[in-house]
């Protein structure tokens, strides 16, 4: 058995694997797999519920829209004006949840009246 040849083969395959990893890193960093950015539409936040379902906060002009995405399509759940939705502090942990619950609570109160 020629150990030199076996070591050379292992080194070659290691270089191939490292090359593939570097290529994937380069493509991901460059943004090949990123979403395209629009001029008027921005995805503000996304929560994946499972591999087929997610919630999206989308900003379109002066509105914030909550969308539900599934294998059946997209559903508009709620809309707010940008002023009504307000600016959420980024540093506060759980601030979106508190803000979202307060907005839903306001809507439920209006529906009861």
Description:
The chain is an alpha+beta fold and 113 residues long. The chain folds into 2 domains: 1-34; 46-108, no CATH class. Helices cover 44% and strands 28% of the residues. It has 3 helices and 4 strands, in the order αββββαα. The chain has helices at 3-30, 82-85, 95-112; strands spanning 41-48, 54-60, 63-70, 73-81. Strands 1-2-3-4 form a 4-stranded antiparallel sheet. A hairpin with a 2-residue loop joins strand 3 (63-70) and strand 4. The chain is elongated and about 75 Å long.
Brief account:
With 113 residues, the protein is of the alpha+beta class.
Strands, helices and their partners?
Elements: H1 3-30, E1 41-48, E2 54-60, E3 63-70, E4 73-81, H2 82-85, H3 95-112
Antiparallel strand pairs: 1-2, 2-3, 3-4
């Amino acid at each position: 058995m020629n150990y030199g040849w076996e070591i050379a083969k292992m080194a070659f395959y290691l270089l191939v694997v490292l090359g593939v990893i570097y290529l994937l890193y380069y493509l991901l960093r460059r943004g090949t797999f990123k979403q395209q950015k629009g001029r008027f539409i921005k995805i503000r936040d996304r929560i994946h519920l499972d591999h087929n379902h997610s919630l999206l906060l989308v900003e379109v002009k002066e509105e914030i829209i909550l969308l539900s995405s599934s294998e059946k399509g997209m559903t508009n759940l709620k809309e707010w004006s940008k002023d009504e939705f307000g600016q959420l502090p980024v540093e506060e942990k759980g601030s979106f949840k508190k803000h979202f619950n307060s907005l839903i609570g306001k809507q439920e109160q209006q529906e009861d009246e």
